[in-house]
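pls ignore typos typing on phone
protoporphyrin IX containing FE + seq
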Amino acid sequence: MKIITKSNTNIIKVFIANCIIIFLAAIYAYIRYSANNLPIPDGSIIFFLNKGLATTAAISISISYILSNLSKLKSINLNFNAYLKYFGTIGFILAALHIFVSLMLLNSIRFPYLFKTASVFNFYGEMTIFFGVISIGLFLMPAITSITSVKLAMGANSWKKYQQIGYFALLALIFHVYFANFFQTSNFSKSFAYLLPLHYFIWAIILTTLTLKAISIFKKKQTISEFPTEVQGKK
Ligand code: HEM
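k done
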């Protein structure tokens, strides 16, 4: 008889939530492209699926960091630790899938705005790849150190430091998304007639994550400075 543990049900819940976001993001992007008469390239299913994967990767990883920060806020007094690891891990796997699908799709016919000639990237193409590589490279650190055996082998302090690298990866992601969508941002009237582009939602969730982190650093500093110096010295 199979035993369904609590952690199994949690991972299934997070997996289903991610599948729903992929589906909704892909459909939203399709409706938006159609409504604004934006050019839909060949292989449209995989093109929009890739948008769903990319968006959900960014959202899932951000949710993981948001939950981690919310769990630390004493005023809220909620503990989301059971979910945050799964949002991070599944988000990372989706990011890897997005890279794989992007490299399959990437050419000057589907993405003319990222290429100078048929086989050479323009500045925006180069920057998209550059920040994409930086982002996945940085996300790799928290992902590896989330593996239970690696985590147990590290001290709590160095484990925390590796997890914080994810914030820099999110920062790189803002630029990756900016350069990947530069053509939309520059064609303001054409792209924005109906429905906001997906990357606006992605920026919003990343900025929320970074703001929460800034608040938690500020609160921590404030708590430390509320102690007289002698007490801090004794701690
Ligand atoms: C080597 C690394 C990477 C490559 C080659 C790459 C490639 C691409 C390409 C070609 C696009 C444009 C797709 C389109 O407009 O349909 C894109 C957009 C995007 N990528 Fe990546 N990417 C990389 C890493 C990442 C990572 C690590 C993440 C997230 C964790 C990510 C999330 C996104 C997002 C959210 C978009 C914008 C989607 C949209 O606005 O529709 N990418 N990427």
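Residues 231-235 have pLDDT under 50 and may be disordered. The chain has ten helices and no strands. more later
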